[in-house]
Amino acid sequence: MAGGVLVASTNGRQYEGKVTMFVLVTCLVAAMGGLLFGYDLGITGGVTSMEPFLIKFFPGVYKQMKDESGHESQYCKFDNELLTLFTSSLYLAALIASFFASITTRMLGRKASMFTGGLFFLVGALLNGFAVNIEMLIIGRLLLGFGVGYCNQSVPVYLSEMAPAKIRGALNMGFQMMITIGILGANIINYFTSNLESGWRISLGVGAVPAILLCIGSFFLGDTPNSMIERGQKEGAKKMLQNIRGIDNVDEEFQDLIDASEEAKRVEHPWKNITQLRYRPQLTFCSFIPFFQQLTGINVIMFYAPVLFKTLGFGNDASLMSSVITGGVNVVATLVSIFTVDKFGRKILFS
């Protein structure tokens, strides 16, 4: 066991339990989905700024970056349609996959959805690492996008349902922590491989390592009690809840989970109901908070950081090192959030 006795709160009730090593290890493995997303987010900008990569797949872009004397133009342009397709196809595929991921997560469980995402990541990373033409690059990116869609949909739900209420915020932010570590790791790898002739293959292919870990780990992870109850596996759900809480007497909490599941199944027309006036505040917060968070542009900065720094006049190494520094600050800020989210609450950190 890890940690001492704590009180887990669900629906206003208090339950005895412990922060078990089982929960911590399980959440760590599951959070690998965030590591994969962060790695793919951070690796792209560095790779697309590598000259060997551009010469092989996007020679037109490379020519635009050079003037007649062979020096870099002050306003080097990356306005190539194929290059744009390469970078944006991940998000397009993730958007489409998220709809299928929600069905998989609900019907087959969070564990199956995470394994599917890891498998997509693995195949996509291998295709990109061994790419010999633009078609392999695009198909690999699409598969990586499917992996993002599945993992981003299932992992936060899995972490929330596995974590005890006392540290639910910290463990759920483990997903974000892994994203920032993935971004930082990608920036560091790009920095050390940028001067290698086939360094871009290493950068793109290394993403297969955490993908393998997630796929293997998924075989040993247990599904959440909530998911198992939804699929009628009540005996297994109770055993899993006992493992999570570290105690045998979980009857009261287990019954509450069953009651909540049955009540949810009785809801008719959930999408219609949520548009009712009494649910308007919840609908507004859930829609506009993530919407405006994305409009801040931070993902674009993380995605294109090396390219942005390069177009501002930084040298190749300097632009990659600047990206490493940005990624490092991102990790530190996330660590602060993890250690304060359950103490001060979400609202204070958000503001």
Automatic annotation (TrEMBL):
Keyword Ribonucleoprotein included in the entry's annotation: no
Entry's transmembrane regions: 19-39, 82-101, 113-132, 138-159, 171-193, 199-221, 283-307, 319-341
Residues annotated as domain Major facilitator superfamily (MFS) profile: 26-351
Pfam families in the record: Sugar_tr
UniProt GO MF annotations: monosaccharide transmembrane transporter activity; symporter activity
Compartment(s) where it occurs, according to its Swiss-Prot or TrEMBL record: Membrane
Keywords for this protein: Membrane, Sugar transport, Symport, Transmembrane, Transmembrane helix, Transport
One cellular component (GO) term of this entry: membrane
Protein topology in the membrane: Multi-pass membrane protein
Stored InterPro entries: MFS_dom (IPR020846), MFS_STP/MST-like_plant (IPR044778), MFS_sugar_transport-like (IPR005828), MFS_trans_sf (IPR036259), STP/PLT_plant (IPR045262), Sugar/inositol_transpt (IPR003663), Sugar_transporter_CS (IPR005829)
Domain of life: Eukaryota
Main location: membrane
Keyword Thylakoid: no
PANTHER family: SOLUTE CARRIER FAMILY 2, FACILITATED GLUCOSE TRANSPORTER (PTHR23500), SUGAR TRANSPORT PROTEIN 11 (PTHR23500:SF460)
Recorded family membership: Belongs to the major facilitator superfamily. Sugar transporter (TC 2.A.1.1) family.
Record's protein name: Sugar transport protein 11
